[in-house]
Amino acid sequence: MAKTKDKKKARRKARKKAKKERRNESAAPTNVTAAEPQIEPAGKMKAKPYQHELRRLHGELVALQEWVRASGAKICIVFEGRDTAGKGGTIKAITERVSPRVFRVIALPAPTDREKSQMYIQRYLPHFPAAGEVVIFDRSWYNRAGVERVMGFCTDEEVTHFLDAAPAVEKAMVDSGILLFKYWLEVSPDEQTRRLQSRINDPRKIWKLSDLDLASYSRWFDYSRARDDMFAATDTAWAPWYVAHSDDKKRARLNILSHLLDQVPYEPLEHRSVTLPKRDHAGDYPEPKLPLRYVPTRY
Length: 299
Known about the structure:
By secondary structure, the chain is α/β, with parallel strands linked by helices. The protein contains ten helices and five strands; from the N terminus they run ααβαβαβααβαααβα. Strand 2, helix 4 and strand 3 form a beta-alpha-beta unit. It is globular, with a radius of gyration of 23 Å.
């Protein structure tokens, strides 16, 4: 028994040390910008190694979740990127094995007339995390720096004001105790074209192809200029941008999940021994004879 406890303790120490080393590596400046893309590994990642590593990371996300609940931590994660960059799939990979009571996904629709009359950041404030919550924004207040600017939904003056104000707002968030992480998913022009074309004839994906997607597709370099200005103005020491190349969706998801886990100072979840209790006896309980309607067994 003592040897088993010593082995578990050694494993926990090794995991904590490796996690600290990865965090230090990711904190170091990489001198890589969106205009200087990193070289992706040759070939798309296969499903089997992807699922194997995703399973491990899901276990770590559960550990993070339990730490958030116990410590009262507040985490806010922002996902931005062009259409088809893989934001939705990455968010699904993060949330599919954790509790929706802890992890909340915010994907706001177009603002109403009333919201348009408000202070710009106002519609996002009610969704910021409270103690024990992880809030994920599937697009965020950075709509103003991206789609609103490119598609002419706001003025140049409003964009400039937003870029000037955003760092101060995010500094206030961080100073209030929120752990803020901002991810930009970078997809190549050819891969974006392939993904958009795949949506046209796929009944599972056609809902993702909006008129706005089609209109913005032809404005690749307008989006590039907007992205570059956004990075220049809002990549700060307290809320930096992290860029993930996402032509290979599987690799991008694993890279983002592992990076996120390295940034949060959670403790690994210690496995607890669980034994199911015995069920009670039927006693005088009779099986009911009710006129129920059953789902047809077609499969």
